[in-house]
Each structure stands twice: as structure tokens, then as C-alpha cells.
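Dear colleagues,

For the upcoming journal club I promised to circulate an example of a predicted protein-ligand complex. I picked one with beta-D-glucopyranose because it came up in last month's discussion. The inputs are reproduced below in full, followed by the predicted structure.
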Amino acid sequence: MAHTPRRLDSYSALAEHSIRLITGLQTPEGAYPASPTFSAYVGYSWLRDGAFIADAASIAGAPDSATAFFQWCANTIARRRDTIMRIVAEAAAGRPVAASDMLPARFTFAGEDGVDEWWDFQLDGYGTWIWALAAHLERHGLPADRFVDAVGITVDYLVASWQRPCYDWWEEHSQHVHISTLACVEAGLRAASVAGLISGERRAAADDAARAIAEFITERGVADGHLVKWVGSTAVDGSLAAALAPLGVIDARSAVGRRTIEVLESHLAVTGGVHRYLGDTFFGGGQWPLLSCFLGLAHLAAGDRDRAEELFAWSAATATDTGDMPEQVGEHLIAPGMRQEWIDKWGPVATPLLWSHAMFLRLGVELGAIDPAALTVAAYAATAPGQGGAR
Ligand code: BGC
């Protein structure tokens, strides 16, 4: 491990540990490993996890680390230009390519497709990386030039593909169109346009698609006044909090925003721990600290600071004695009988999960519980070639 185990007794210590984990584990190529030790994730970086990790690094005192990740995304996507052009052309000709020929959700650190079978066709990360990048450039007043090309072809890919069913945030249910996936795509398209990362016809197409997605969400992504897991469902999913904050696709104070929070609370939150969805069986279907933080961000955006603080405190308390935050905790399982099956298959729950640490940082900074100026980052590849990225 790249970090020194120690006891953590305050938010600032956990925050410091979190940013050091994130920057210390970043690879020389700029990728963020999802988890350094978990068997099924070792060696891979996801656009979804990575975008939110970079977003946290950007606000938590490690902007160079975030830039290095976005550069990795840009390089990884740019080398798939021909594939993207073919996907876009075939879609325009009314012959959409097979789901298995769409772009993957995760890549090796060198930016290659994985060699293991995976539930790869997921659109959300292609929107989220643009959203996080645009916010990062704006926040730190950085030049956009070197990202323009990769953002442009990502936008083409999303404009041509957003209506397709694909795997969701949890890499499941590929037959459905997922509302949180659409929120990520809409956020990415809007951010590309507003930040001036695209222009001309491409920008007009992105604006049209973003508007169409917003209408689609309103018409087909809402039931009983709240956002739903997928089109046709009446259930919620913990990932929907992200549509309110930090993505801001749905106003957290609107009727739909408030009702979505209310239903997420009543269906998925038990004390401060948030389940992914009812019916989850992955590792028994425990509570995910990163989802507590997303729900906390949504509450904060809706004006309920007290509840946001409770959720934040709950997420912090999931850290182990050495300060590592897990993907999920098993205190309140939806399907207890399924836990051992996953442990037998893949080993214990992914710990640390960098995305969990990232969301703890993100909510902590927004709450003012973490002071970014007080954090020191680990040496990482962007500034110290060959010295960061202990893998
Ligand atoms: C989760 C994904 C996540 C991946 C890597 C999967 O088990 O369902 O949301 O991107 O792990 O952390």
C-alpha cells in the first residue's frame, strides 16, 4: 500500500488520508485505480469513478492530479476516434452498432480495453468526465485547448447514442434506459457547450440533445413526482441523488428534486447509510458511503444542512482503523444470504475504494468540514514521474 496506516480521530485526518490515497495511487499515466487491492478491479480505471475522484481532487487541493486524470481521459478517448466515427456514422445511417462494439466503461492504466469480460457498455462516464473537466477548468482558470479534441468526439458519441439502453452505474440491467445515466450525459453535454469546449454545428447538436434529454427525463423519467431508476420503473436508485447534486441537472429545490430526496430517504436510507436500490444482492446489498455523500450533497443543495452533516458523519464512520473507506458496509443487508457468495467469488468488499474517499472529500469541502488549504497531497505521477502511483 502507498499509505502509512494510522489511527484517524478527526475529519481532517481522514481528509488528509483520502487525498494522499487518491494522489499516491494515481498511476504515471494519470489513471486512478478504482481500488488497489480488490481482485475484480485491480489494474483498471473507470471513467465514472475517475471523474468523481478527479472532481474531488480538483476541489481538495490537488488540481494537478485532476488535470493529469483528465489528460488520461483525453488520450484514452482520442485514440478511439475511428471507432467513434464509425459508431456515429452507423447510428446516422439507422444501423446502430451492437452494444458489444460500443466504448467500454473501464480501461487499463495504459488506456487499453480490458482483457476480462465486463459489463462494459455504459454511457454515464462519458458525460461525467466532461462535466468534471469543465468545472475543473473553470475553477482553476486553466486553458481548455488540449481537451477540445477529445471532448468534441465524446460529444459526438453521446449525441448519437444517448437514447440507447445500456448498463447503469452498477453495471446492471442493460436492457433499460437509466435516468441517472441520462443525467450524466445531459450534464456533460451542457458543460461542454457552456464552457466553450465545442462550437458550431457540434455545439448546436449538443444543445439540442441536452434539451431533448431534459424533456425525456421530465416525461418518462418521473413517476409519482420523483425521478425513477429506469424508464418504466416506479422505483428509485441511490445514484439519482447525483442528478440533483453535484450534477445539477434537476433543481434540488424543485418539486421533483424534493420528492426525489424524500423517496430516496424513505426507501433507501437507514440511519445515514444509503443502499443502491431495493433488490440489490451484490455482497448482500449493503450501504454505500459514497451514496450517503451524494444524498448529502443533494440535501445541501436543497437547503437541509443538518441532514447533510448526518450523512457525512455516517460516511466518515465507515473508515477502518487505518482510515480506508470501503465500497459498502454490511451492517444492514438487503440480502444477507448473498454476501458469502460474493466473498467466495471476489474476496472481501473493496477497501479502500477511491470513489468513497472522493465523495467524502467532496461533501466535506462543501460543508466546510474539510479545509482544502490544510491538506497536503502525495507526490504523484504528474509532478514526480515514476515516484507516484504505487501499484
Ligand atoms: C460498481 C461500479 C463501479 C465499479 C468500480 C462496481 O462494482 O457497481 O459502480 O464503477 O465497481 O468501483
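Two points we might discuss: Residues 1-7, 381-391 have pLDDT under 50 and may be disordered. The chain has one domain: 12-381.

See you all on Thursday,
B. R.
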